[in-house]
């Protein structure tokens, strides 16, 4: 689970309640609300009234991970859950996660898992 509360709390305890810590918390909150529909760094930066570059540098400094990495891990986790626990078709999952088409979703999923969504569904 990429949003392990213990990890976030450890980060919060090490870093004084600074602007950077507040930006990290706000980003995580926005991500939890919008990851299915919004896959771009500029969206999250706009919501926070900062530039994408500034958001990326703060998140990287606070966590060692990129904004895109957080977004993609959330999408991948949700995709795995939907493939494993639902009867939705791969096309329906691609639509639910706001990919432009099934091919884009399949390419994304294969990049993260090493296997296609159909292969994943067949192994579980």
Care to count the β-strands? 0
Mean pLDDT: 90
Strand proportion: under 5%
Gyration radius, to the nearest Å? 16 Å
Share of helical residues: over 70%
Regions with little confidence, pLDDT below 50 for 5+ residues: none
Q: For the terminal residues, how far apart are their CA atoms?
A: 19 Å
Based on CA inertia axes, which overall geometry fits? elongated
Number of helices: 8
- H/E series: HHHHHHHH
Largest sheet: none
Structural class: mainly alpha
Task: Name the descriptors.
0% strand; 124 residues; 8 helices; mainly alpha
Concise structural overview:
73% of the residues lie in helices and 0% in strands. It is mainly alpha-helical. Helix 2 packs across helix 4, helix 3 crosses helix 4 (52-63) and helix 6 (90-96) packs across helix 7.
Task: Explain what this protein looks like in three dimensions.
- Helices cover 73% and strands 0% of the residues.
- It has 124 residues and is an all-alpha fold.
- The longest helix has 19 residues, at 67-85.
Summarize the SSE layout with pairings.
Blueprint: H1 5-14, H2 19-34, H3 41-47, H4 52-63, H5 67-85, H6 90-96, H7 102-113, H8 117-123
